[in-house]
Design goal:
30% of the residues lie in helices and 23% in strands. It contains 14 helices and 17 strands. Strands 2, 3, 4, 5, 6 and 7 form a 6-stranded antiparallel β-sheet that branches. The protein has a 6-stranded mixed β-sheet with strand order 8-9-10-13-14-17, sandwiched between helices. It starts with a helix and ends with a helix.
């Protein structure tokens, strides 16, 4: 097993050579954090220290250090003033929606926020929710006020069991089709969903696509939706024209890891065109290995032409919609048929296309591509893709779908 110091040293080396952030931030203030690491320190303290170091880079979502042995806490919150409102919770957490967390290990919410300020990267209170779950796992006891005004101290546990929810679903409302995508990770399941509702999709007057909390995946997963969301008879690329290219870091480590992962997909019975594409990608990484940053000249959505219907498309987003969710919202925002409702997306595509390195039970995730619009002050970080109709979050959202109600009455 690697020691704590060895793991941190390797992470710093990756930040120097392989992470797409190296141009902008190098290794950050690594020496300050390295001096605090010892091989006999508590596992949670080590995890906290490394995560805090990575948070200093200000890169959300695509720069992570996690512990396989430390499971999720099983509930999510939103902050307003000095209260964390529970919006979702597994049954065995002891929490319910509408619970108000007013203290954690004796700290008020504002005191704890100041204590862990680095983790929040300057985000506004409305955009902090996705970060609180990562912070609270380091603490033990919640002071909670229940909906009936009773007060209780509840221990945080990490092995809670949640009920599985559908990642992809559709619902028909008169002449409106509602589509829900919790992520863009499972291409087969998404294609099956679209096949099931194809007849409705072809005939509906209004389409609502809900990508709130979308955890990302592959941009190619939402390509089949594009023809329904852009004007009839016109190319998507006439509207969606990225101003700046993406550059990819072809470091030796990145290329070797990409080639190894790509070869895994070549095993088994796969279509010929998929085999050809994978072999091309392997050849590309072999040829460019060690060349550093090179521009990616692939044109997204090339050749796709818009259809007649639906007449209007509404996209629902929020601050937890990231990665391919960001990309989806950004592409759709270019169409005159589309209105985006809710709150700005997470905004984490400045640095993307992640690689994963395992250190025993720890996992380090870092980005290998960089959007060159960063150089012109046009990055999405901490801003996200803006909405056309902003619906601020409030405790009234708990138990009520304010955004969907707005879209159905639009």
């Amino acid at each position: 097993m690697m020691t704590n110091k060895e793991i941190f040293k390797e992470i710093v080396e990756i930040m120097r050579e392989d992470s797409a952030t190296c141009k902008d931030y190098g290794t950050g203030n690594s020496q300050e954090y390295e001096s605090q690491i010892s091989d006999d320190m508590d596992r949670k303290d080590f995890l906290h220290l490394v995560q805090e170091y990575l948070a200093t880079f200000g890169v959300e979502g695509h720069l992570l250090f996690t512990d396989f042995s430390l499971e999720k806490i099983g509930f999510s919150v939103m902050r307003q003033d000095d209260v964390l409102y529970v919006i979702k919770a597994n049954k065995d957490t002891g929490l319910v929606s509408e619970d108000k967390i007013v203290a954690i290990d004796g700290f008020s919410i504002k005191e704890l926020f100041q204590r862990e300020k680095t983790f929040f990267m300057g985000e506004t209170a409305e955009r902090e929710g996705k970060i609180w779950s990562a912070v609270l796992k380091f603490y033990n006891v919640l002071t909670v006020i229940h909906p009936d005004d009773s007060k209780e101290d509840i221990s945080i546990i990490h092995n809670t069991k949640g009920t599985e929810t559908e990642c992809y679903s559709f619902e028909e409302y008169d002449d409106t089709l509602y589509l829900r995508f919790a992520d863009f990770a499972d291409l087969d399941a998404i294609n099956q969903l679209l096949s099931k509702c194809k007849c409705i999709l072809e005939k509906c007057k209004k389409l609502i696509v809900d990508v709130r909390g979308n955890g990302g995946g592959a941009d190619s997963a939402f390509v089949p939706l594009l023809e329904y969301c852009f004007p009839e008879g016109e190319f998507v690329t006439d509207y969606y024209k990225p101003e700046y290219p993406i550059e990819i870091n072809y470091s030796v480590r990145n290329c070797k890891d990409r080639i190894e992962n790509l070869k895994k997909y070549l095993v088994g019975d796969i279509p010929e065109e998929m085999t050809a594409m994978l072999n091309t990608m392997i050849a590309n990484n072999t040829e460019n290995m060690g060349k550093g940053f090179l521009d990616d000249d692939d044109e997204f959505a090339s050749g796709i032409i818009g259809k007649k219907g639906p007449e209007k498309v509404l996209i629902i987003t929020d601050e937890s919609c990231g990665s391919s969710g960001d990309a989806f919202a950004e592409v759709m925002s270019c169409s005159p048929k589309v209105t985006i409702v809710g709150r700005s997306t997470m905004g984490i595509t400045d640095f993307s296309n992640c690689n994963v390195v395992s250190f025993d039970d720890f996992r380090f995730v870092y980005p290998t591509s960089r959007d060159k619009r960063i150089d012109y002050g046009k990055g999405l970080a901490h801003k996200g893709v803006p909405v056309d109709y902003y619906i601020p979050w409030s405790p009234e959202h708990i138990g009520k779908d304010v955004e969907l109600d707005y879209c159905l009455n639009y």
